[in-house]
Amino acid sequence: MALTTLDAKTALVIIDLQSGIVALPVVHPAQEIVQRSAALLDAFRRHGLPVVLVRVTAGAPGRTDNGRSTGDFPAGFAALVPELKQQPSDHVVTKRTWGAFTNTDLEAHLREQGVTQIVLAGIATSIGVESTARYASELGLNVTLVVDAMTDMNADAHTNSITRIFPRLGETGTTQELLDLLENTRA
């Protein structure tokens, strides 16, 4: 579905653009994802819209088939990349699960701000972005997914999320389409 509108109170939520995540091998160059996300951040800040920067500091407990440790990540792993130009007005969410809502203050923060729509970007498409989008949809938020401002460690997982899952959770579009819509609705 093409982008149709942005609610008056739309928040930008950037998922896991931090040193330890952007260093992982991903399908699309991480630097391109960071650059597109930075452009979105600049535009949202310029229009006085809420910005949320999400980072992950540990994995959820429990056994998995991939055998990854669920303990804390190494020092520096969770540092947000400098290109995001974190501002004092940005709300930072630190998560220990895939989704940004679980056991965090994200839902309360968005409600306090009167947010009715979120725009999502970041890494990884099929993990943090999709989990956050699912929860947001269940909360009744309008969800917009900027598909060229996200990537994954697995090409099939990325494609599945974008082509099969996201159209059922919200509207999808590119960075430029979102920026154009933002400028046209806030002019």
Quick rundown:
The chain has helices spanning 19-22, 30-46, 106-113, 125-138, 155-169, 175-186; strands at residues 10-15, 51-56, 91-95, 117-123, 142-151, 171-173. The protein is of the alpha/beta class and 187 residues long. It has one domain: Rossmann fold (3-Layer(aba) Sandwich), CATH 3.40.50.850.
Tell me what the structure shows:
By secondary structure, this protein is of the alpha/beta class. The protein has a single domain, classed as Rossmann fold (3-Layer(aba) Sandwich). The chain contains six helices and six strands, in the order E-H-H-E-E-H-E-H-E-H-E-H. The chain has helices spanning 19-22, 30-46, 106-113, 125-138, 155-169, 175-186, and strands at 10-15, 51-56, 91-95, 117-123, 142-151, 171-173. The protein has a six-stranded parallel sheet with strand order 3-2-1-4-5-6. Strand 4, helix 4 and strand 5 (142-151) form a beta-alpha-beta unit. It is globular and about 45 Å long. The relative contact order is 0.22. The model has no long low-confidence stretch (mean pLDDT 94). Keywords: Hydrolase. This is Isochorismatase family protein YecD. GO terms for molecular function: hydrolase activity. Its EC number is 3.-.-.-. InterPro entries: Isochorismatase-like_dom, Isochorismatase-like_hydrls, Isochorismatase-like_sf.
Question: Per DSSP, what share of the residues sits in E-state strands of 2 or more residues?
Answer: 15-25%
Mean pLDDT figure: 94
How many extended strands? 6
Helix percentage: 25-40%
Q: Strand-and-helix sequence, N→C?
A: EHHEEHEHEHEH
Which spans have pLDDT < 50 for at least 5 consecutive residues?
none
- As laid out across the biggest beta sheet, the strand order is 3-2-1-4-5-6
The Rg value, from CA coordinates, equals 15 Å
> What structural class do you assign from the helix and strand content?
alpha/beta
Distance between the termini: 24 Å
Q: Which outline best applies?
A: globular
Count of DSSP-assigned helices: 6
GO molecular function: hydrolase activity
InterPro entries: Isochorismatase-like_dom, Isochorismatase-like_hydrls, Isochorismatase-like_sf
Domain Isochorismatase-like: 10-177
Keywords: Hydrolase
